[in-house]
Amino acid sequence: MRLSRFIKALFCGLIILASVALTFLTYYGSAATHEIVQSARSRLVSYLQVVDTEMQGLLLDDNDTLPPGDMGQPVELPKTLSADIKKQIDEGWAMQGLNQYASDLVSVYRRLPDIRDEWCKEPGRFLPELPPASIVIVFYNEAWSVLVRTVHSILARTPPELVEEIVLVDDCSTLAHLKTQLDDYFRPLKKVRIVRARERQGLIRARILGAKSAKAEILTFVDAHCEVIVGWLEAQLDRVARDPTVIAIPSIDWIHEDTMALNAQSSQLYFGSFDWTVNFQWKARSEKKVKAENPLEPFDTPVMAGGLFTINRTFFAHLGWYDEGFETYGAENLELSFKSWMCGGSMQIVPCSRVAHIQKRGHPYLAKTPGGYSVIKRNTVRLAEVWMDEYAQFYYESFGGPKYRGTFGDVSSRKQLRERLHCKSFRWYMENVFPEQFDPSKAVARGEFRNADHGGDSCLEWPPPLNERGVSACHGRGGHQLWFFTADGEITREDHCLDYDGNKLKVIRCHKMKGNQQWVFEESVKHFKHVFFNRCLEWTDHKLKLNDCNDSTVGQKWLLQHYNASNLKIV
Question: Which is deepest, 112, 200, 226, 365, by most CB within 10 Å?
């Protein structure tokens, strides 16, 4: 019986092999022979896996070499590669921001280990009856193997009764394989539905398109370059089912963009944060003021990374979806984070939900977008104008002030949304949701720290420009010349502090232990003096150094912007 089934499947597989090769030859011509054979082989393997999983026991035994990438192992390419393969690899990096050649060698059905903590697997951990979700995946010119593997990982590792549908939103892709070929591939899978934008929407508006077309009351968003771990959806659904105003976020593991290896991260040890350039960051949970009794329980996060989350559809609509004035990509994660907390909801990371994600190099989504990275700034200005109140000023100072905001469109409807929802202030958010965050309003000084020598036109800067030594010409545009002097005596920017060990002056991660990083500003003589070594910061001979303090040395005098001595009393 098993042999006859094997022969039948093999015969059908050979037919598929021939038909797929013929199809590819028709589409691309004989020059693509290597790619055709590779894709056809993948189709054959996929077919065999679908037809009868028992057959794999006939085809493989314990002595067989596992397929590339199986169980999350890295794809190891030969050290010596042909010019043609090197070209394919280079093209993949340029187009996709990942090693597409390595990805194409990995089965779209590859296995991954269950990396959850045993606590997560205990019976009764989640509600016995969970609502189904519409899973929304936006893609634009995604590599075939990456996108298809994302979908199959969801279907393979999610209870079918919890998947209402998988909505693939095509943001007007131009690659041929994402048109009819994709339709034909997923047509037999009734739970997979493709929604196609008529024109480029950008990632943000494409997500809105997918959300509004979804059937289920629960929406789960997944990036198009992910693979899920068993139990991933149940853990998120449990949180949203218990409280429809909670946005549930999985712990994010890393698929290496070069080797496709699964790297299980200690993601439950981190929470979402942002700096005052309003860029997302991860921070250690050890810095949180409220400690968790059980680190595996869902825990609050002030902001989220953005691409992976589950939300109640009605609550999402109540919050005004995303700002449809946002362009393409960027700041949508922070907007949803701020307004969820400020308008009656919350946001939690769920350690028992594990989703592995490829962090692409660069932002291929923005590569051919008009304006490129400038759209992120435009979006962030809209965010600041609507949600950040007086704290928007600190973001604007990061690029020189509000006069450099640029055009950002009409935000009146978003401000009306905030008023209609009776949302709290951003200061409330800072004090109640994110008390760990550095508050620039409590800084002793912020902005440019000018040295009085050479007419006061030289500013402390880090990282310094090429061939400079920590001080360069002031430009008035924030950036690397934006500093804070805190009530704790830190000279800091972007969580890095000016540090002196008695020998070398450097900028390193702030450790909050004072010592090498504690300074005082003597306002009467305008000196920055190191508390422990009792020396003064000096700019001399085009070098930044510490010397014995001297009131008459101009290079030791510093002119601080937005200086407020009263904040010295705030600890």
Answer: 226
Q: What does each C-alpha distance from 259 to 69, 100, 137, 362 come to in angstroms?
A: 8, 10, 23, 17
The pLDDT of 355-366, averaged and rounded, is 84
Residue 267 has φ and ψ, to the nearest 5°, of -65, -20
pLDDT tens per residue across span 383-401: 999 999 999 999 999 999 9
Contacts of 253 (CB under 8 A, 6+ apart): 115, 229, 262, 263, 264, 265, 267, 354, 355, 356, 357
> How many Cβ atoms sit within 10 Å of the Cβ of residue 308?
22
For residue 467, the one-letter residue type is N
How far apart (Å, rounded) are the C-alpha atoms in residues 282 and 272? 5
pLDDT, one tens digit per residue, over 12-27 is 444 444 433 433 333 3
Cα separation of 45 and 66, whole Å?
13
Three-state SS letters, 284-310: EHHHCCCCCCCCCCCEECCECCCCCEE
For residue 357, give every residue at least 6 positions away whose Cβ sits within 8 Å of its Cβ, in sequence order, or none. Answer: 223, 225, 226, 252, 253, 254, 255, 307, 308
Whether residue 294 has pLDDT greater than 50: yes
The pLDDT, as a whole number, for residue 8 is: 44
Using CA atoms, how far apart are residues 329 and 190, in angstroms rounded to an integer? 30
Task: Report the CATH architecture of 118-366.
Answer: Alpha-Beta Complex (3.90)
N-terminal to C-terminal alpha carbon distance within the chain: 78
Sorted by sequence, the CB contacts under 8 Å of residue 60 that are 6+ apart come out as none
Structural domain boundaries of the chain? 1-60, 118-366, 441-569
Q: Which residues, other chains included, contact 130 with Cβ-Cβ below 8 Å and sequence gap of 6+?
A: 162, 234, 237, 238, 241
500's enclosing H/E stretch is: strand 496-500
Distance CA 89, CA 525 (A): 60
- In DSSP notation, 168-179 reads EEE-S---GGGT
Residue 84 and residue 82: Cα distance in Å, rounded? 5
Task: Take residue 79 and report the two structure tokens written for it.
Answer: 């050290």
What number does CATH give the domain 441-569?
2.80.10.50
Could you read off the pLDDT of 107-119 as tens digits, one per residue?
999 999 999 999 9
Q: Report in angstroms the alpha-carbon separations of 80 from 74, 98, 99.
A: 17, 20, 16
The predicted pLDDT at position 569 comes to 63
